[in-house]
Each structure stands twice: as C-alpha cells, then as structure tokens.
Amino acid sequence: MRKKNTWLWCAAAFLCLAICATIPISVSAENIPFTDVPRDAWYYDSVAQAVSDGIINGTSDTTYSPDGSLTLAECIKLASCIHQLREEGTVTLGNGTVNWYDDYLAYALEHGIVNTPDGNMNAKITRGAVAVIFANTLAPRTPRLNVGTRHFADVWDESLWYYDGVYTLYRCGIMIGGDDGRFYPGDHVSRAEIAAVAVRMTDASHRVKGEISFMAKVRLPILMYHDFAEETKDYTITAAVFRSHLEMFRREGYTTVSFEDVLRYQSGEDNLPQKPILLLSDDGYMGVLDYALPLLREYGMKMSVAVIGDMLGERGEGTLTHFTLSEKTLADPDGRIELVSHSHGLHQITDSMKGATNLTLNGDFYRDIVTEDCRVMQSLALNDFPMINSVFVYPYGAYTAESEAVLGEMGYSVTVTTDKGIAEVSHGGGLRLLPRITAEWFLSGDALLKEIMRY
To answer: pTM of the predicted model, to two decimals?
Structure first.
C-alpha cells in the first residue's frame, strides 16, 4: 500500500458522503464491488481510490453510476469539505435544516470558493464551472505544469468566465481535455470524472505529470460538391437538397470553416469551432453563385470553391457555365465564398496525363508543365484571392509523389484529393493529401449525415 498524505488519511472519516445520496461501502483500492465500473475503464483507478479513501461512495452496494451527473450543490459540498480538511485538519460542516447544502454554500462563499449564491443548486454542473470552483479550492502554491502558449481549441478567449479556472486546473494536472485537444467546458460532469478530479485534488501523486500535448488531431469532414441547379443532373444538386444539407449542419451543431480558417488553426494563430465542416465545390460553376450562395447567406455559412483558371468565364449550356472572378466578387461582397486552385489548365485527361499526374516516363517534361501551370494560376490570385496560392485541389483527384513535391516547391500548403475519408488537422501538423466525402446529388441531409458518420 502506497504512503498517503496525513490529511488524506482523514478524508475517509469526513468525506464519506461528499456527494449526497450515496451509500458508504467498505472496499479496497484494488477490489471494488461495482458491476458498472469495468476494470479496463479509464476511470477505474480513480473510482477505486476515491471510494477507498472515502471521498466518494457508490449509489448502491454494487453500483457506482459512473455516467450519473453531478449537481452544483454536490460540487460545492465536495469542494468545501476538501478545502476545510486541508486548512483545518477536520471537517465540521454538515447538512443544513432548510436546504441540505446551506452550510457548505456559506463556507464556500466565505472562503472564496464561489463568489455568488445565485443559480439553481440542483442543476447539473458543467466542466467549466467545476474548473472554476476547484481552482478556487486549490492551495495557493500548488505546483503548476509548463504548458507553453498552446490553448484548448474551445477555450482560447481570455474573457471567458471559466478561462482562468480551466487553465489553473490544467496546469496543476487535475483536469485535462479530450483526445482531440478540446476541454468541452459546456459538457456536464459525470461521477466518473469527478472521482478523478477529487483524487487529484486530495493526492498530488495522482496528478498528470509533464506537459500535456495539444497535438491531438481535430476531425474535419470536407464535403465535395460540384454544380447547383434547379434540376438534378450528374454532379449537380438542387437548391432544395442543398438546403437540407445546411439544415442538417445547423441541427447537428456543425460550423462551416474555410481553408484560411484551417491554416490559421494549424499555425496556432486561431482555433476551430467545436464541430468544423468544410464545403468544397469543384470547378467554379455559375450555379454556386446563383443557387448555393443565397442559401449560404441565409444560413450564415461559408464555402470554398476550387476554380479552373482557363475555364473562368466559360459559357456553355446549363451546368457548363463558369463564373468569372469579377462576377464572384460582385455577387459575394461579404466573402462567404473562398476561392482555391483546381489548376489553370490541368483539368483534362490525355493519353499521357490525368490531372496533375504524369503517366509517361518523361518526368522533366511533367515537372515543367505543372510548375508553369502553377505560376500562371497563382498570377490570377493577386491580393483578392490569396488561398489560390496556398490550396491545390487535385483535378480528378489524381496525384503522385512528384506532384506533391512540385506543389510544395511552388508554395502550396494544402493539397486535397478525392480519396474517401475525414481529414484530421492539428497545430503544427501537415495538410497534404486531405481526403473528402462526396455530397451526392441524391443524398438528403439525414442521408449525408449517415455518410459522414461512416468514417
């Protein structure tokens, strides 16, 4: 049995009912009787230690209810007991006669654990609120981790009321984020999570040591569209179908992002929303301006369009019409549509070349063609369309190792394929050969969601 701090040994006597409506059970840290706490669960050791130390108990002789939610009152009670035990060596707090939590709340207010008594004490508490309460409970000289300048993707604004609390507990190794580099401050706290927090609060040996990585990748679905029209054709979807997609994004909590947003996240300049999604339309058809743009404006969303340089302004019948750069600028003054490169003249299939790949053995000839094509395309970008210089969407999704090398030399930071899958992006990570998911013309919003969830 490992050695415990003296004050922690007292915890069993004074905190056995730190969370109300629980049942004290005599167990050891090595063997707990709860059938709903699997031995391979991430929280097993924390629950075992918390119950063994008497900090938290089960909800019955055989259940712990790890998924049960913590309330504000229960959190304040636990924090107040931990604070009083550390400061006074004993816990004299007890349940009140009017409201069971009155004494704990009064203690918390007196010692700055909470600042105001307002709020529904029986409401489920969020991770952000737990962070603030337990940050105020910590001893002043609790050792901090050196985590540099990285931020959680969803806790980057210093004006957020829970900002200081989140980073205080993070730097103390008490509360950490998810595997995707987010903290999820608005999520409710489960009994499994509070067991880990309580054990780390009372016993420093359980705290996370060293720097916690922010290199975890964020999943970014990139959806492939082409043209938009009143009637459905191959590679063309109707405005009604596209509306159903936007409705689904809104309902499911997705936020549309641009490649510029992704590059700013990769460089550490900014953060992505909690559920980012990128809409990418190939070729630069007029239907994007006529049908997609009004809906994007209505729903407050954005889209990227991969334009083909030598087809800008090409006029044909129906879906063969492509917009010009000036038409795009005039139709989209608020910049909801971002332009990226689909090559200048490589969107073709010949016996020797498919898109940006070379199917012959003449590598020098191929390199010269692609290099010159990039130069011509980048000359169109000027200052109005900077992402044309940074993002290359492979024509027909065709690429080789050499095409990747050439595009890198020409300054492209992002390359996009038609390979199936969901892209993953991170601070400082690569953005090459990103996969996509095809938003087929026959997929409703719900059907498209199922397609996204396949990956």
So the answer is: 0.58
